[in-house]
Amino acid sequence: MSTPTAGPELGAFLRAHRALLKPEDVGLPATSRRRTPGLRREEVASLSGVSIAWYTWLEQGRVTASRQVLESVGRVLRLDDAEVRHALRLAGYYEPEAASARAPLNGSLQPVLDSWLTSPAVLLDRNFDLVAWNAAWSAVWGEPSAVPADRRNLMWFVAADDHLRGVLRDTDWEPLAMSVFQHFRAQAGANLADERVAELYRRLAADAPELSHWWSCHSVGELTTRVVTVTPVHSEPIKVSLSSMRPVDDPASLILLFTPASQEDSARVSALVSRPLRSVGATRKAG
Asked: How far apart are CA 232 and CA 140, in angstroms?
């Protein structure tokens, strides 16, 4: 069972969402005399059924909260399901299992990925590191092994990889990249006590400093189904539909599957897969 904890990450998350709301959003009369944007702490406390002192301590990371109280605060702050789950994780609930508790899945799932002949597929671990992929993934997105292992991470690819950004249509890149970051925050949060998470943020800060406001944001979400357009080298545009699934053997892992939207799109991926693999390492920033 998970144990509730107190910490600054939850307080920062709640403050960020409190600042997004106006009094009229929660049925309170609007007033002109407000020194800071958003709801006041006493308003959130009153609507959540807790004292102002206790809620202040909650935002300061000085007290723990029950699941029921956090869900009540979440309703007041208009958090969606993903955001409520994120708040619960920050408070010590829904803690992911330790990675060492399970055997690696890349060996057992590689045949599954390989069975999708024309659908790029990849297996991500709990930190979004790429641990297995198929030939279609390499043909469309580029060969992951051309990138140093410490940067072989989905967040790094969408933020700092020139090859991936060159393949993906401009209008699709930012929504997809933001969803990747929001999903990562929902799963791993800003848990800098985790050595790999801290390393990822350092790599991102070094290789994509222009996007630093992305990983300092507190928004969370899910990597939901969507259609994107990719144009690999020597190919016409290809439409693929993104879907994701979690292996039962390790729910903290994630499989991403990009299914061609039509037979024509499938044929174009097949043509790419049948070509000799070209190294794209020279086109990628390695820091």
From this structure: 6
Give me the mean pLDDT over the 72-97 stretch: 82
Confidence of residue 174 (pLDDT cuts 50, 70, 90): very high
| CA–CA separation, 45 and 72 (whole Å) | 10
Contact 121, 257 (CB under 8 A): yes
pTM over 0.90: no
Amino acid at residue number 82: A
Distance CA(180)–CA(203), nearest Å, equals: 16
Q: List the end-to-end C-alpha distance of the chain, in Å, as a whole number.
A: 41
More confident residue, 198 or 278: 198
Strand partners, 124: 130, 254
pLDDT at site 270: 96
- Report the relative pairing of strands 238-245 and 254-260 from DSSP bridges: antiparallel
DSSP letter, residue 100: G
Which of 17, 12, 73, 74 minimizes the C-alpha distance to 48?
73
18: left (phi over 0), alpha (psi -120 to 50) or beta: alpha
Q: Which residues of 137-170 are buried (b: 16+ CB within 10 A; e: fewer)?
A: bbbbbbbbebbeeebbbbbbbbbbbebbebbbee
Tokens of 283: 């086109």
The number of beta carbons lying within 10 Å of the beta carbon of residue 78 is 12
Tokens linked to 64: 């723990």
Q: Mark out the alpha helices in 78-229 (DSSP H runs).
A: 81-90, 106-115, 135-141, 154-160, 162-167, 170-188, 195-207, 212-215
H helix runs in 25-123, sequence order? 41-48, 52-59, 67-76, 81-90, 106-115
Higher pLDDT, 68 or 216: 68
